[in-house]
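anyone seen this seq b4? input:
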Amino acid sequence: MNYWQYLTIFLAVTITAILFTQIVRQLALKWKIVDWPSGGRKIHVDRIPLLGGLAIFFSFFIFLFILHPQILAGDLEARNWWGVFAGAVVIMIGGILDDKYNLKAKYQIIFPVIAIICVILGGVEIAKISNPQGQLIYLNKSFLFIGLSEIFLFIWLLAMTYTTKLLDGLDGLVSGLTVIGSLIIFLFTITTKYYQPDVGLAALILAGACLGFLALNWYPAKIFLGEGGSLLLGYLLGVLAIISGGKIAITLLVMALPVMDLLWTIIRRLMKGQHPFKAADNKHLHHRFLALGWSQKKAVLIFYSFAVIFGLAGLFSQSEGKFILLVVLLLIMLLLVAFFSRWEKRQQRKKPKVILHICCAGCGVYVGGELLSHDYQVILYYCNLNIYSLEEYEKRYREVKRVAAKFNLPIIKEAYDHGKWREMVVGYEAEPEGGRRCHLCYHNRLEATAKLAQEKGVKYFASTLTMSPHKDARVINDIAEKIAEQYNLEYVGDNFKKFHGAQRSAYLSKKMSLYRQDYCGCEFSIRIKK
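predicted toks r here
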């Protein structure tokens, strides 16, 4: 196959992927499978359709099937590709379910694990690897190494799938890096002594499929990869690295910064006592670039540049040279970690403090954990004497502590005294929900927050009360503004449920399996369950 034929195939796949991406985008909007903006880790300002990985999936495997005579002309057998295909189907099914129903992390990991097992059952293996000196180690030759091929393959593919999953935070980042990685593998397999035109063709098809998707995923994105797509690209790129003769080093050089960011993320979360794959934060390298004031495009292009430079350098390097390049990238990553750690500490000290009254974990996880923490040092204040029964008060507080621990926020708890609150609302027991009794309750909690802020020498105070869909944010903000004037403070007020804040709050609550009560707090607001 000559270069003109390769170019024709590449363009055909790209155009097909653009068409599929348009179709999938319309279907995602119709089915309401979209990503809602809300601040925090979310940096887009409008709802964006998900399921983009489906367009890449169909484009890649349709052309793989059309060109199967060339794909099967090398050493790979049909069962190898069927194993890869079965794994991709599993990943896409899991991704669609997650995009639609926000699966918990313990369920999300099931799908890539099953997918990798499909690849192994399909007969794909790592027959040999080379050490930095270029010496080959045959994993299936010696009795001592029985099973090591499968273990290495499993770890490699799982690492690649989670690298692209966690990296998928900026428009065009993952899809663009996959284009670069696939093209590097294509060049490697058709221009070096490791001539494998079948693998090169598969890599070229993946590059075209991702480029077509990138046309609509580039900033500002009109569609996102979704869970399935972000996992699929790491999975396919990892598979190509294996079937191209175990050229893991080449792929690592392209994906080195993301892979190292994944390792640092795991270490960082473990040091905080968090589950490395359940927790979510905005401490990834691409988030840190944005925190410096860089645009999305600039941050993405930095990743692209590293991938192209080190990928091409690895293409013309021997094993020892590739090892040296990986060491250089490791040193760069360590310098970046050290720089951002010091920079963030300085930035954190510059942030003003705010006392945030938190009514419940469901509201606080978004307002305190994601929204206000970008501009303030948030101190949570749990003061809700309206809550009926000490048991309920403590139950909600335990959930608030989980939020505080997740986002490393200090918390102050007010002693429970429901009797004092009952005295305050005497005569207003029959008021409807949202009436005068509620207004007194708002005032009581907001004033307590203002008093605490004044005692602590904190200039700002806020409340999560406006997150509730059952409360009038205008009333709460009016009361808070008058209290702020009385105590010479500044109220950080807003209707936090606007701009899809309620959807984001519900999403985060579900992810953390937070307790979500079905009544405001006092005995007068308890819903009668039939």
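Residues 3-35+42-345 form one domain. Residues 469 and 497 are 7 Å apart (CA to CA). kinda curious what u guys think
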